[in-house]
Design goal:
about 280 residues, 12 strands, globular, 5-stranded mixed β-sheet, 3-stranded antiparallel β-sheet
């Protein structure tokens, strides 16, 4: 049976990312994947773009970030002339300051204070964060840990924040998946792909409406609305959990039991982390 990770890679392809997926067939391949820093639960996925495959060009008058080799101090300089670089030079001689990314993160990255809040504010300022896909539990991380996919475009240095509107797709509330009996599949996210509008993501329409469609899963928030939230939290929900109000709409007993186990395990893992931090 194909992994949910592979299906999500197919979804990324549909929204204009080129994603390749493979599962290490032996321990040696697993070690290689770990060494490359891309291993995810023994299942590895790689997202490629045109730049990572073919290289690109730095244009004249473009602002370029440069670093001192010893001090690592950063400075910005205007490019004097066009420079063409290959894919092999990327992240070695050239660190591209523009580009697209789809990053999988657990929920705590969206709401934790301190360093987490600083990272979110920096993300809103220096990149164009435009889409957040909220996924059910157990897709990427350990049982009980809920995942999100953040889609953003990296941008050149600017005195003004790049992020404007952030679109959320809630594929979690009232959604029930299990890794064995009901795993996440490509078809489950077809509506997300349609809402994302890969042909022109600047022409999107909300499916949520407070009066006409309060169950719409696709909703837009402005940067100002996000910044005004406590700790600049991106942990946003607006749909009602029907299982809390409608006892007839509860999931099947095995799914409900699995979710209870996942939540308990997540709580235990949190306590273990606290104990570990206390020494």
């Amino acid at each position: 049976m194909q992994s949910p990770l592979a299906d999500l890679c197919e979804v990324l392809k549909e929204v204009k990312w080129k994603a390749e997926y493979y599962k290490p067939s032996n321990e040696a391949q697993t070690r290689e994947a770990l060494a490359d820093g891309v291993n995810v639960g023994n299942e590895v996925y790689l997202i490629e773009t045109k730049i990572t495959k073919k290289g690109a060009q730095l244009k004249a008058k473009q602002l370029v970030e440069k670093r001192e080799i010893i001090t690592r101090k950063k400075r910005w300089e205007q490019q004097d002339e066009d420079i063409v670089y290959s894919a092999k030079q990327l992240d070695k001689d050239i660190v591209k300051t523009t580009g697209r990314a789809a990053v999988v993160v657990p929920d705590n990255v969206l709401f934790e204070g301190g360093a987490g809040e600083t990272v979110r504010k920096k993300l809103l300022e220096t990149t164009e964060l435009h889409t957040i896909l909220r996924l059910p539990t157990g897709i990427f991380y350990a049982n009980g840990v809920k995942a999100n996919v953040l889609f953003f475009d990296n941008r050149e240095a600017s005195p003004n924040p790049w992020s404007k509107d952030i679109w959320f797709y809630d594929y979690r509330t009232n959604i029930h998946h299990t890794l064995k009996k009901k795993p996440l599949r490509f078809d489950d996210l077809k509506d997300f792909i349609a809402c994302y509008n890969p042909l022109n993501r600047h022409e999107r329409k909300e499916t949520w409406d407070a009066e006409k469609n309060p169950d719409g899963r696709w909703r837009k928030y402005t940067r100002e609305q996000i910044v005004a939230r406590d700790k600049t939290s991106l942990d946003i929900f607006w749909l009602k959990d029907k299982s809390l109000a409608d006892l007839d709409n509860l999931p099947e007993p095995d799914i409900l039991a699995a979710e209870i186990i996942e939540n308990v395990e997540a709580g235990l893992n949190s306590f273990r982390e606290i104990v570990g931090a206390l020494g």
